[in-house]
Amino acid sequence: MAILPYCVVLEESDVVAPETGVAEAEIFELEEGGLRCFFSDVEGVPKDNEAIRKMALQFRDVIQSVFAEQTTIPFRFVTLLHGERELRKFLREHSKKFLTALQNLDGCVQFELHLVRRNTAASDIPDAESGTEYLMQKKAEADVFETTSELLRSSAGDLVRSWHFRAGDDDARCYALLRDNVDEFKRSLSKVKIPPELRVVLSGPWPPSEFVE
């Protein structure tokens, strides 16, 4: 058996976690380093993709249930530890970071904006005739992500407390930290003129895990 931790909250928090989590496993909790941590005992990670997907959704549901009551910091899916002793050791080693984050981010939520390139037919993509042209094409592709991120960030103005931008080869993600005015934030985004080659997928609110330093 292994331990699957879900998330941590402040020790004095009166939040109540669901009774069961992934694979209907019972949810337990322990206190260490000023933190309360919710976890389940599991056999491991299944190899079947559908089973993993279901497990991930159940994992997310537990975190969202806790988050509905209290600011929380989730663990990554899938983090497995070898027993309560290792979990306690982990919490002690990271307690300062977690405590600071939970206090600074109390009442905050995170939104994710996924910038995705629209499907383009191969015939519509010009061939680069040289290495230089290829690099210029790649730079232009990267620039459209950054420019769009700046437009979105600017539109939200003071509604956003912090903004993170992470670009990949074929997509990019923006993370917005808010405390209030969620509806106004969404309205501000709807006014942004998105480049025709991109689409933006908004999701949230989520726990503000991207802003844990």
Structure class: alpha+beta
What is the overall pLDDT average? 90
Oligomer: single chain
What fraction strand? 25-35%
How would the blueprint of this fold be written?
Blueprint: E1 2-10, E2 27-32, E3 35-42, H1 49-67, E4 73-74, H2 84-104, E5 109-117, H3 131-156, E6 162-167, E7 171-178, H4 182-190, E8 198-206
Antiparallel strand pairs: 1-3, 1-4, 2-3, 5-7, 5-8, 6-7
In a nutshell, what does this entry contain?
This protein is an alpha+beta fold. It is built from 4 helices and 8 strands, in the order βββαβαβαββαβ.
If you had to describe this structure to a student in words, what would you say it looks like?
The structure is a single chain. This protein has 213 residues and is α+β, with helices and mostly antiparallel strands. The chain has two domains: 2-104, no CATH class; 109-211, Alpha-Beta Plaits (2-Layer Sandwich). The protein contains four helices and eight strands, in the order βββαβαβαββαβ. It has helices at 49-67, 84-104, 131-156, 182-190, and strands at 2-10, 27-32, 35-42, 73-74, 109-117, 162-167, 171-178, 198-206. The protein has a four-stranded antiparallel sheet with strand order 2-3-1-4. The protein has a four-stranded antiparallel sheet with strand order 6-7-5-8, with helices on one face. Strand 6 (162-167) and strand 7 (171-178) form a beta hairpin. The longest helix is centred in the last third of the chain and has 26 residues, at 131-156.
